[in-house]
Amino acid sequence: MSAVRGLKLEVPMVEEDHVVMISVAYLIVLFSVQRIGTSKIGLAIGPALFLWFCSLGGIGIYNLVKHDSSVLKAFNPVHIYYYFKRDSAKALYSLGGCLLCATGSEAMFADLCYFSVGAIQLIFAFLVLPCLLLGYLGQAAYLMDNNGHAHQPFFSSIPNGTFWPVFLIANIAALIASRTMTTATFSCVKQSIALGCFPRLKIIHTSRKFMGQIYIPVMNWFLLASALLLVCFIANTEEIGNAYGIAEVGVMMMTTILVILVMLLIWQINIILVLLFATIFLGLEVIFFSSVIRGIRDGSWLILVFAMVVYFIMYIWNYGSKLKYETEVKKKMSMDVMRQLGSNLGTVRAPGIGLLYNELAKGVPTIFGQFLATLPAVHSMIVFVCIKNVPVPFVPPSERFLFRRVCPKSYHIFRCIARYGYKDVHRENHQLFEQLLIESLEKFIRREAKERSLESDGDDDTDTEDESSHVLLDPNGTVYSLGAPLLSKYKNKSTKCPVISEASTSHEPPKESTSTGQDKSLENELALLHMAKESGVVYLLGHVSIRAKKDSWFIKKLAINYFYAFLRKNCRRGIATLSVPHTHLLEVAITHMV
């Protein structure tokens, strides 16, 4: 809107309604082409931003030379003291405007995943900062020469004959800044989904080269609707600027608080240095916040309402998901029940591989009991697949899956934890996913047999999953405790090299016969795996829902039965991340009262 409003100076017939209509048209076009990847329009972005900053610097130098170069005295910080001494209230209120002078520039590089840290530092130090300083100094010189009377100092200070080129570049720069802010929102939402703090949404990757270039249709149209409402009903750039100011300062303060927590808990820096850091940075931000909060009646309330709505959605989703997971952990099947059922699980074992998706990292999920009670047969091999998002950008395919046996070896039941980073692509071809998973499972079986041959006290019938243990073994033989590699190479036992002595050889069977038996057992299990693979893979999906008990508090009923249920019903289903055909999908639902 501020870029389009420059038309009012050059074309007197343009009214405020026309500015709003043109801005609405810009927004519709901007969000409509948002799906096009940045790499496809990147050839125009770079030159346009370069021309924009060069024009800012050039216009600033022109105004300094033509009007009043004495504004360079503003670099002397003593004038800040004099300014506050003359009128403290007015000076404090104007700090919000000073903040907006600096914060508009970061929109050009809002989504840092497209650029390296060195490139950002270089561009800001040698292009963005000098051009912004020259631009604002030039506007100040123009205002000094005209006694401060100018409705739009930037467009008013443009040299004669250069209005239209500068107007065009300014509008292109505004569109680019708006687009980068939108892509930054997509990136934040994607990482929030990966951390379980936001409902699952459809994410489209717009580039095959760069993993960070994504598009979220629901968020795109939601942002378009919000922007149109803001422009149509509050067409005052001053009020919108106030809302933007409180958003910027809020982000700065939250970032500083989180950095302080990291300094205390992670880096464990000296408390004196932490207090010094907090005093300087948080103190300055509190001063700026006290300035922008004064405009809460002039538009800042919009951003506060928006923040509360988003926070409410995130809190309800996180609360409901956590409660659902805790309920599943409490109601998981007992290993004693599994042993009583026997290796056939009380039913018929049909050839094939069943991938049962659940959120448990250990134990037998209760939804599996629902499958056993509902189906007349289960697959010869069962794999409990648990997808976990780990706080790293990418997980290599070789480290994607972690396996462990759940029951004795004759049950042929495994647990698989599929790990994804917050920048990994979850949407994979189901055939490629199955191939990688089965190959990793085969490596695990071979590695397990090799390690078992080294153990002098190994017993096939006692290889069950310890419910109090979080230890998992990847195909390479490394032990993990749900994300962090352990120092020990083996599971929970201290491995000893087998020592053959005369006493031991007289009471123990020969080593060759033990090895032969283990080799035969390995061959049988691998043959069963290959036979099951040829029979096909079926995805067993359990819909676990929760509802509040009748004697629960009213607020809990409202949050679980209505808000969380609405979010869960309208979010993207977990199985949608894999392009699984419906003929390979089997679903069973269960409801828990919490």
TrEMBL record:
Alphabetic keyword roster: Ion transport, Membrane, Potassium, Potassium transport, Transmembrane, Transmembrane helix, Transport
Compositionally biased intervals (Acidic residues): 456-466
Keyword Nucleus among record annotations: no
One annotated GO molecular function: potassium ion transmembrane transporter activity
A Pfam family matched in the record: K_trans
Keyword Transmembrane: yes
Domain K+ potassium transporter integral membrane: 1-338
Cellular compartments annotated: Cell membrane; Membrane
Transmembrane segments annotated in the record for this chain: 20-37, 44-65, 91-110, 122-142, 162-181, 214-237, 243-266, 273-293, 299-317
A GO cellular component entry from the record: plant-type vacuole
Membrane topology: Multi-pass membrane protein
Main location: membrane
UniProt domain K+ potassium transporter C-terminal: residue ranges: 351-590
Location of region: Disordered: 452-476
Family, similarity comment: Belongs to the HAK/KUP transporter (TC 2.A.72.3) family.
Function noted in UniProt: Potassium transporter.
Protein name, entry field: Potassium transporter
Species this protein is from: Ambrosia artemisiifolia
